[in-house]
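User: Hi! I have a protein structure encoded as tokens and I'd like to know what sequence might fold into it. I'm fairly new to this, so please keep things simple.
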């Protein structure tokens, strides 16, 4: 169970930049598609004070538990993936003045030993953001074919093709693999050449993306977001790796490339990244990129 110290443990990335870009005003409505532990939401709602017209979404049951303890009872909190939620809101005709989607894994998820997101602990291979779903990292690692694993590592981990096939072969040869440390150590002893990151980092990213259908969720969700914005409504998208950012960049390019008929207008031409001051406090912000747009009249 998460407690009130969670806010201290979780530093929302690019907080001042999000506040400046979304520019919340009293009375405005807000949709947070990945509310996590409410870091961004709390600061935005402090300004708007409009809880009844705002919605917080997360598919992590522990985040939901914390959000319900943190925010007033008149705010809507939804325990569901963001694509399903956006689809329902679109069908109901709901619109908002601000929408934020922070596509990263939260620090409490990474730091909680039993979640299996990190090889810092010797944990079961899990990686589910929503623990109600059946597919786990253990299923991917132990049941997928060598060819499927190689494709996953190359596509979602952006590993070189040759290395992806070698990694897949090593994993298949040593199955079953039960824990994060076991998988990370197996990769570490086989791979050399990374100086800045652990050699298992990209494999873990790839498996996590597959387990949670992360890119599919983003790709299906983005085109619906302009429909959920009021005129002059602002949209913020935070990405953490090139695959996510490519989807966000292409979506915004398409949504703003039709002149007067465009649905959106870009607020920042280049993605906003963390300042050195934030990186000292929160090193995980180093790969974060914020893209902002607003709804055209």
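Assistant: Happy to help. Inverse folding works backwards from shape to sequence: for each of the 297 positions I chose a residue that suits the local structure. Here it is:
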């Amino acid at each position: 169970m998460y407690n009130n110290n969670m806010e201290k443990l979780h530093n929302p990335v690019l907080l001042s930049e999000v506040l400046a870009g979304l520019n919340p005003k009293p009375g405005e409505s807000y949709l947070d598609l990945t509310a996590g532990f409410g870091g961004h939401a709390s600061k935005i709602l402090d300004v708007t004070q409009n809880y009844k017209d705002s919605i917080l979404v997360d598919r992590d049951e522990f985040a939901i538990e914390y959000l319900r303890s943190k925010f007033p009872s008149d705010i809507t909190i939804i325990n569901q993936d963001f694509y399903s939620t956006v689809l329902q809101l679109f069908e109901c005709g709901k619109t908002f003045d601000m929408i934020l989607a922070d596509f990263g894994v939260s620090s409490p998820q990474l730091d909680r030993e039993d979640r299996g997101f990190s090889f810092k602990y010797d944990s079961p291979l899990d990686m589910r953001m929503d623990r109600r779903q059946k597919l786990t990292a253990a299923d991917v690692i132990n049941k997928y074919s060598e060819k499927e694993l190689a494709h996953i590592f190359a596509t979602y981990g952006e590993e070189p093709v040759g290395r992806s096939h070698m990694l897949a072969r090593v994993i298949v040869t040593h199955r079953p693999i039960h824990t994060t440390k076991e998988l990370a150590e197996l990769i570490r002893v086989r791979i050399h050449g990374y100086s800045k990151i652990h050699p298992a980092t990209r494999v873990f990213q790839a498996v996590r993306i597959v387990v949670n259908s992360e890119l599919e969720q983003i790709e299906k969700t983005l085109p619906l977001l302009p429909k959920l914005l009021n005129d002059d409504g602002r949209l913020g998208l935070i990405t953490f790796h090139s695959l996510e950012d490519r989807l966000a960049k292409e979506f915004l390019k398409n949504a703003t490339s039709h002149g007067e008929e465009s649905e959106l207008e870009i607020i920042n031409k280049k993605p906003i990244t963390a300042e050195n001051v934030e990186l000292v406090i929160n090193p995980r912000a180093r790969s974060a990129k914020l893209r902002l747009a607003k709804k055209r009249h």
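A useful reference point when you look it over: The domain at 6-108+215-295 is CATH 3.40.50.150 (Rossmann fold). Feel free to ask if any position seems puzzling.
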